[in-house]
Structure formats: structure tokens, C-alpha cells
Amino acid sequence: MKEIQKSGEESKPRLSICIATYNRARYIGETLDSIVPQLSTDIELVIVDGASTDDTAKVLSRYLTGNLPIRYIKETINSGVDIDYDKTVLYARGEYCWLMTDDDLLHPDAVQQVLTALEKQHDLIVVNAEVRNADLSECLEKRRLPLIEDQYYNTNNSEQFFTDTLKYLSFIGCVVIRREQWIARRRQPYYGSLFIHVGVIFQHPPLNSIRVIANPLIVIRYGNAMWSMRSFEIWSFKWPRLVWSFPDYSVHAKQSVCVREPWRRIDYLFYRRATNAYTIETYDAFIADKSRTLLKVTAKLIAYFPSTLANIIVVLVVAGFARNRTLHLYDLLHNKNTSKISTLFARCRGVKL
Questions:
Q1: Thinking of the domain 2-221, which architecture would CATH place it in?
Q2: Least buried of 39, 217, 239, 349, by fewest C-beta within 10 Å?
Q3: pLDDT by residue (tens digit) across 92-126?
């Protein structure tokens, strides 16, 4: 582990913006350009590099000159996203930690708005975001959480917080948490889950003071996740297993945000086939040994179903009938199975591509 530290002040900052990164040389400079102008003596930036093999270190070196409150730690091995984010919090000195991502952007006044919210001494702040395509040229969703006013939660309505925000909280960049709360809670059981922050937030006991900022302060670069090639495993197994592990929330609440075993549903498998996330290889790896005979046969047939034809069928259904269709259509229309028919129908329905 190698640390390069540039800090204007040694006193405890109010907020640490914590980034875990790996091979993001293409994007992290733009991310830092949105953050660095908002740094001050009350804010530090902590970056843990999980042994990147690209030019990430070279890009970051441009920001380590001068007297900026930036700490860059280059690890010698890649420990995975969960451990690296845990490390960012342990390295941080701030009272609060914002677990920011390495390819998304902050709005120009985002840090100041969060600092203002922190004056109320909440345990957790969830920051809303807008969603854009991978090159940021098109807005896919103006507000990921459809809120007009800030929302407040405590132990009395923790289940409401669970159902209102859990899907959005799969995005780690929206989390601002009191550092002592993070350190006091169990983290190791969630190593390898890819969602350590969700495990920290929803484990027993529930957090007592939570604020959700309705105003979108983050720009999410959609479709750029490092785990795209593992999406079937993650959303079929890892994410549901995590969601259903929390003891303080009812079956009804869990069911409302995540089916326990989505891979058993034919419509789910067909949708994943349409996006090419489900193939005969994923069937062999994750389903063949788990399902009963009838499901096994059906699941295998879907895995062999022509993916381009599946794409056409699902685009017709989603564009014609689905609510909140934008991100689903983006996934369907931006993969190698997208056909000219799918694209033409989407355009006829007024969908921007």
C-alpha cells in the first residue's frame, strides 16, 4: 500500500468524500473535476485505488499537486469493491463519509447542500440523483427517487424507509453516513456482496435519524457498471440474498422491493435473455443444478431462444405497456442483440435512443 497525501489542514474535517476505484482512468478525471472545486478545509477527498493496472494513478497525479485536501492510497492487491470502500472509511478522518463513485459526477453545489443537511446531525443522508447515458449526453431520469420534498425517517418508520429507498440504494454513491456508525456496525459479513453499504445500513438495529435529499445532486453515468458481465449472478442471486437477509423487515416489505428467487420466474429469464445477460453459460453456471425438472427444461429452452428475437419481443412489450420504461429500454436497446426492428419500434413510440 502506497499513500500520497496532500492536505491543507490536519484538523478533523466535517466530511470525507470517499472513492474506491479500479481501472477507471477513462472516467475518474471527470469525476474529480466535479468534486475538487467543492473541497475546502472542512472537506477531504479520500481515494483508495484497488491496484489499478491502467493509467488511473497517472490521472490522479494531476490532482495531487498544490495544497488540496486529497489523500490517495494505492493498494498492492485488488481486494474487491466492498473491502476497498470499507478501507476508504477507515482511512477517512471526517465525521461523515460520502461513499462516492469513481465515474459519476456531483452537481456544483452538491457538497454545500449536504453540509447544510448535516447540521441536523443525522446518522444517514441519502442523496438523490439524475440518471444519464454513458456519455452523459442524454438525461434518462431527472430524479431517480421521484421525490419533490426531503423525507425523514427514524426507527418508528424504518420499514417505510426500506421500501421507499432500497432499490435506489443499490447505488453506493448516494450514501452519506456518520463514520462512527459505519465503524460500529458489522462489515465483514458483507464482503463479496458488492453492496457492503446496504448491509451496513439495514442490519440490526435500524438507524435512527435519516434524511433523503429530494433534490438530485449526483449525475449517474448509467450503463457503465464494472460488473456488467456479472449482472445475471448479481441481480438473480447476490442482491436478493442480501435483501432477504435483514431480520427487521417484514416479508411483505422485502417482497415489494425484490423477489426472493427471481431466477425461478420465466418472464425474468426471458427479459435477461433479451439483454443477453442470460445465456446457456449462465444457465449451466447458476441454474442447472438448482431447479426442478420442469423449470430446468424451461430455463434451458429460454437460454437457447434466439436473443435477437427475444429483444424484439421484450422491446414491444416494454415500450407498449410498461411504466417507468426508460431504463429498461435503454438496457434493451444498447446491447449487441438490439435489432433494427427493436430500434424502429422504439423510435415510433417516441423513445430517445
A1: Alpha-Beta Complex (3.90)
A2: 349
A3: 999 999 999 999 999 999 999 999 999 999 999 99
SS3 call for 143: coil
* 69/66 Cα distance (integer angstroms): 9
pLDDT tens-digit series, residues 229-265: 689 999 999 999 999 999 999 999 999 999 999 999 9
**pLDDT given for residue 166 in this prediction:** 98
Spatial distance between the Cα atoms of 200 and 89, rounded to a whole number of angstroms: 12
Q: What is the DSSP letter of 73?
A: E
| Cα(220)–Cα(142) distance, integer angstroms | 10
Residue-range domain boundaries for the chain: 2-221, 261-348
What's the rounded Cα separation, in Å, for the pair 91 and 18?
A: 9
| Phi, psi at 265, each rounded to 5° | -95, 130
| No. of helices (H) and no. of strands (E), the chain | 16, 11
Structural contact between residues 175 and 222, judged by C-beta atoms closer than 8 angstroms: no
DSSP 9: -
Q: Are strands 210-221 and 175-178 parallel, antiparallel or unpaired?
A: unpaired
How far apart (Å, rounded) are the C-alpha atoms in residues 70 and 74? 13
Q: Which residues of 103-138 are buried (b: 16+ CB within 10 A; e: fewer)?
A: bbbbbeebbebbbebbeeebbbbbbbbbbbbeeeee
7-to-21, 63, 90, 114, 335 alpha-carbon distances in Å: 20, 12, 17, 21, 43
Q: Are strands 15-21 and 96-100 parallel, antiparallel or unpaired?
A: parallel
pLDDT at residue number 337: 64
How far, in Å, CA of 185 to CA of 93, rounded?
18
**269 CB contacts (<8 Å, ≥6 apart)?**
263, 278, 298, 299, 302, 303
The residue whose grid cell reads 478545509 is 41
Rounded distance between C-alpha atoms, residue 272 and residue 182, angstroms = 35
Q: How far apart are CA 341 and CA 338, in angstroms?
A: 8
